[in-house]
């Protein structure tokens, strides 16, 4: 309900991203959806490996080469960012959507002065007429791009059909092959009398150790051999038996492998034909809508060119008239130069303008003595100051969305708090939308308008900050909340037991089940849907099913919530008192 009044900025839908590795496909993001609204901070929280960075890199279009976007979309200004060309992505990346990474050093050039790095970011997009042109045609261009994207998606889907089928067969063949190998391994190592044999070895070792007499030793050896032989015979018999079994298994499975390989081949051919058909249909659809959209785009391009031409002519006329008037008036060189500069700046950001803007943005992010700092190299800055520079660079393009991926993890606690405060302030002043990523719910508490909790490539709970902190529903959120160090005692609390699942073969059901002490049988079998708690609060846990037994959040979580609510109440009262005593006293500085 609340969301209805908000302006949607970015929409991620059913996003699935995998990585091709030697071991197979790693399913890093498995169906993530969320919306980002104007001026809000959405925090994405989860343990290491839950897919937070992969999600943000998908939005930025900077996934590594082995990544496959298997499904879903990231819609920004009517365009699906997962479908636009690399060559064009720069229009959006670092421009309308900025990003700040965990390690500021890796995003800065170590051998370029900081000031230059900031101005370069500005000068990349310094052609103001080009920007104007892009703005004018953006709607028609997006519509045209979308049909291209749609065709591309259909092509990818078709290719995935083939790959999936091959992969299915490969898995089965690998399993059969493993069975054969296991059987032969067993045949070469099996020993039903292992225990007795080692006991004998030990016994005779001892006896031999006790005497140096050659005759006696000979007798001991003979005795040992006599006792051992039947056991060895038994072992060998067992191995012969196991070998027979292994060749049996080999014969059976070899046959199955042969059949599967043949099936794989024919299935591959069948699906390839199907894929070809799908591509043909996609082509047909593309070709049907293309001419009209292409014509509309071309017309708009013409219009944009004409509009810019007209603008240039008009401004030139104004400039010429002004200059003539100034000269007639006997204006100084300075005045003339000023007017010329003004005129030039309509078309291009000049170096001086870029520098002035850089100094301004450096001051804005809290860098003291920007004039001095402008000419220094990254190594001359502390970690916190470097992160401010990275934020300054991200801000130069005046982004609408800022993605911060663990921006404070590499910093110590006090500096961390300052950077968080900075991001909060900038967000408010610039009315940006922020996606803030952290593995620590504690860090997020003072930042978030809304929180999405991620686990094993999925969002398992999402809600307003108050809902997730004060009324958490998913056992994983409970576990995360229990693991935040206590604010007052700094006591390190319950670590979450176990480790996240390996995403090569994601588990069935609720991925958190194996680590969840509240898990029920169904958690291991089928995946929980999102249950609605309120209009803004959803959680994917079977505990919210009507049939589930009542499960209470752990005591430690409820205690902390109580304590935190009490603190909040106290600070509100305090504030109320302060406001009263202040009367109507002047402006309040934050
Ligand atoms: N290039 C890659 N090749 C193979 N697997 C990858 C690649 N990049 C990421 N992964 C895998 O994808 C999963 C999600 O990784 P991601 O970096 O998104 O985690 P994260 O939530 O950001 O964790 P962290 O808190 O450690 O930054 C992990 O299992 C990771 O190993
Ligand atoms: Mg990460």
Condensed summary:
Helices cover 57% and strands 13% of the residues. By secondary structure, it is of the alpha/beta class.
What does this structure look like?
It contains 17 helices and 12 strands. It has helices spanning 52-60, 86-89, 104-107, 114-123, 128-189, 194-210, 214-328, 333-344, 351-364, 370-373, 383-396, 413-430, 441-444, 465-470, 475-482, 521-525, 555-582; strands at 8-21, 24-37, 41-45, 67-76, 79-80, 97-100, 401-405, 433-438, 450-455, 458-464, 531-532, 538-539. Strand 7, helix 12 and strand 8 (433-438) form a beta-alpha-beta unit. The radius of gyration is 34 Å and the shape is extended. The protein binds adenosine-5'-triphosphate and magnesium ion (MG). Adenosine-5'-triphosphate binds next to strand 1, strand 2 and helix 1. Magnesium ion binds at residues 52-53, 405.
């Amino acid at each position: 309900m609340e969301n209805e009044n908000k302006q949607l900025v970015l929409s991620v839908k059913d996003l699935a991203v995998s990585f091709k590795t030697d071991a197979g496909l790693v399913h890093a993001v498995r169906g993530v959806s969320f919306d980002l609204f104007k001026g809000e901070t959405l925090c994405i929280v989860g343990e290491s490996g839950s897919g937070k960075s992969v999600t943000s890199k998908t939005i930025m279009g900077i996934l590594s080469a082995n990544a496959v976007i298997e499904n879903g979309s990231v819609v920004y200004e009517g365009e699906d960012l997962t479908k636009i060309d690399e060559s064009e992505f720069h229009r959006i990346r670092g421009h309308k959507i900025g990003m700040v990474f965990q390690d500021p050093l890796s995003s800065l050039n170590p051998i370029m002065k900081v000031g230059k790095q900031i101005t370069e970011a500005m000068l990349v997009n310094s052609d103001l007429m080009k920007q104007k042109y892009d703005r004018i045609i953006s709607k028609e261009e997006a519509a045209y791009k979308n049909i291209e994207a749609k065709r591309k998606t259909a092509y990818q889907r078709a290719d995935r059909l083939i790959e999936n089928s091959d992969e299915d067969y490969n898995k089965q063949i690998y399993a059969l092959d493993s069975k054969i190998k296991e059987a032969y391994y067993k045949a070469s190592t099996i020993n039903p009398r292992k225990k007795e044999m080692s006991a004998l070895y030990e016994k005779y070792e001892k006896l031999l150790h006790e005497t140096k007499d050659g005759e006696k030793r000979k007798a001991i050896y003979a005795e040992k051999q006599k006792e051992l032989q039947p056991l060895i015979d038994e072992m060998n018999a067992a191995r012969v038996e196991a070998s027979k079994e292994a060749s049996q298994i080999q014969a059976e499975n070899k046959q199955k492998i042969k059949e599967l390989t043949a099936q794989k081949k024919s299935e591959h051919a069948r699906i390839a034909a199907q894929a070809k058909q799908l591509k043909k249909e996609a082509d047909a659809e593309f070709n049907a809508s293309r001419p009209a959209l292409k014509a509309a785009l071309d017309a708009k391009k013409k219009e944009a060119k004409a509009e810019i031409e007209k603008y240039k002519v008009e401004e030139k006329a104004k400039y010429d008239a002004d200059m003539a008037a100034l000269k007639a008036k006997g204006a100084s060189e300075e005045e003339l130069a000023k007017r010329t500069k003004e005129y030039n700046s309509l078309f291009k950001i000049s170096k001086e303008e870029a520098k002035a803007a850089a100094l301004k943005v450096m001051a804005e992010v809290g860098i003291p003595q920007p004039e001095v700092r402008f000419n220094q190299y990254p190594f001359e800055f502390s970690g916190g100051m470097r992160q401010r520079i990275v934020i300054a660079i991200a801000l130069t393009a005046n982004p609408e969305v800022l993605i911060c991926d663990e921006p404070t993890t590499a910093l110590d606690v006090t500096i961390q708090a300052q950077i968080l405060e900075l991001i909060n302030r900038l967000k408010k002043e610039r009315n940006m939308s922020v996606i803030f990523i952290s593995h620590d719910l504690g860090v997020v508490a003072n930042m978030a308008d809304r929180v999405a909790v991620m686990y094993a490539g999925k969002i398992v709970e999402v809600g307003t900050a108050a809902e997730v902190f004060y009324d958490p529903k998913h056992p994983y959120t409970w576990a995360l909340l229990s693991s935040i160090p206590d604010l007052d005692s700094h006591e390190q609390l319950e670590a979450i037991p176990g480790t996240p699942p390996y995403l090569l073969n994601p588990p069935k059901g609720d991925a958190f089940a194996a680590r969840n002490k509240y898990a029920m049988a169904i958690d291991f079998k089928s995946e929980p849907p999102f249950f609605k708690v309120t209009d803004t609060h959803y959680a994917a846990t079977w505990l919210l099913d009507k049939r589930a037994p009542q499960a209470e959040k752990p005591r430690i979580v409820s205690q902390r919530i109580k304590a935190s609510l009490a603190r909040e109440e106290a600070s509100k009262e305090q504030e109320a008192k302060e406001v009263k005593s202040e009367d109507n006293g002047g402006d309040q500085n934050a």
